Amino acid sequence: MTIFSRAFRPAAAAGLLATSALVGGCYVVPLHPQQPAPVVLPAPMPPAPMTFTARLYPSNDAAASYGMLGAVVTNDLNGRGRFTTTIGGETFSGEATRVAGSARDGVASGAGQRGGYISCRYTMNSESMGTGNCRHSSGATFSMHLGH
Length: 148
Prior knowledge:
The structure is a single chain. By secondary structure, the chain is of the alpha+beta class. The protein has a domain at 50-147: Quinohemoprotein amine dehydrogenase alpha subunit, domain 2 (Lipocalin, Beta Barrel), CATH 2.40.128. It contains two helices and eight strands; from the N terminus they run αβαβββββββ. The chain has helices at 2-24, 61-64; strands at 50-58, 69-75, 80-87, 90-98, 105-112, 117-124, 129-136, 141-147. It has an eight-stranded antiparallel β-barrel. A hairpin with a 4-residue loop joins strand 6 (117-124) and strand 7. It starts with a helix and ends with a strand. The relative contact order is 0.15.
């Protein structure tokens, strides 16, 4: 058996070498090519509302007693927003909207908890700055400056 084993080893090695040479030149072709996996991206985040401060400067004698006032406009970026201010201890809240057909002009109105009201018209000079005028139910008028 040792003689057969020694004689078999070179023949087995030669056969293995020949098989390796034949298979080494081959490659595998898939029958059904694979499609790349789809890439799933997260949904885009909706734009966050923008908040602007507004300063109301007295523009007539009726408004002089109030002095300069602050207001806040929160724009939801869909043509609407919220408007709030406090005048003479009365808090006013309401809406700010763009005028139909205009990308720059808007109106803001607020009702007070004691029955007063304020109405403003404004024009945005840029995305975050604008000017306008407000009229309070007492007859007081204010020049309004919007912006960061």
